[in-house]
C-alpha cells in the first residue's frame, strides 16, 4: 500500500513539473476556455462549417458534402473544445495539437473513453505542423502565440482558399476580424472570427 502511495505521489510531482516546464517553454500553461467562451467557439465553428458545406472548397469544382470539414485546434490543452467540436459538427474531422505531455495524454484518453472517433490529438507544436489543409483553425493561445500563428499566414493570391480562424480572447495582430462576439463570461472574453480572402496559410514542414 505504501508503494502505491509513493508511486502516486511521484507521478503527481512528475506531472506537475512537466506542466510547469512545458508552460515555461511555451510562455503559458495550458488554460481551458471558460464554459461560455468554449460554447461560443464551438457555435461559431458550427456556423462556419455549415457555410463551408454550401461552398466549393480547395480542389473541388462544386460543394462536396462527402468530404469532411477539417478542423485544427492550435494548442488543444485538455481537449474539451476539440471533443465538443467533434460532437457538435458531425461532418468534421478534428485534430488537436498539444505539446504539453500531461494535457495531451488526458485529451487522448478522454476521447478514447468517450468513443470520439472523429477527433484525434497529436503530440507536437502547431507551429511546426502543416496547417495548410485546414478548413477551420480554432485557438485559445496568448499574444505571443497569436503572433506565431499570424506568421504562418501570407497574403499570396496563388495560395489555396484560406481557412476560417476562430480565436478566444486574443486577436490576430494586424488583421481585421469578420466577427467579434462577446462570450458573456466573467472575463468578458471576446471570440474573433477571421474569413479574410487576403490571408493564406503557408505550408510548413517539421
Q: Could you explain the architecture of this structure?
A:
- With 206 residues, the chain is α/β, with parallel strands linked by helices.
- It has a single domain (32-54, 66-201), classed as 3-Layer(aba) Sandwich (Rossmann fold), CATH 3.40.50.
- Helix content is 36%, strand content 19%.
- The chain is built from five helices and nine strands.
- Strands 3-2-1-4-6-8-7 form a seven-stranded mixed sheet, with helices on one face. Strands 5-9 form a two-stranded antiparallel sheet.
- Helix 3 links the parallel strand 1 (69-74) and strand 2.
- Helix 2 (35-53) crosses helix 3 (80-88).
- The longest helix is centred in the first third of the chain and has 25 residues, at 2-26.
- It is globular and about 40 Å long.
- Mean pLDDT is 78; it is low at 5-11 and 13-21.
Task: Look at the structure and give the CATH class.
Answer: Alpha Beta
Q: How many H/I helices? A: 5
Query: End-to-end span in angstroms?
Result: 45 Å
Overall pLDDT, averaged? 78
Helix content: 25-40%
Number of beta strands: 9
Q: Can you tell me the residue ranges where pLDDT is under 50 for at least 5 consecutive residues?
A: 5-11, 13-21
Structural class: alpha/beta
Radius of gyration: 18 Å
Overall CATH architecture: 3-Layer(aba) Sandwich
CATH homologous superfamily (4th level) name? Vaccinia Virus protein VP39
Could you spell the SSE succession in H and E letters?
HHEHEHEEHEEEEE
Structural domain count = 1
CATH topology: Rossmann fold
* Cα shape: globular
Biggest pleated-sheet summary: 7 strands, mixed
Tell me the fraction of residues in β-strands, as a range.
15-25%
Spatial strand sequence of the major β-sheet: 3-2-1-4-6-8-7
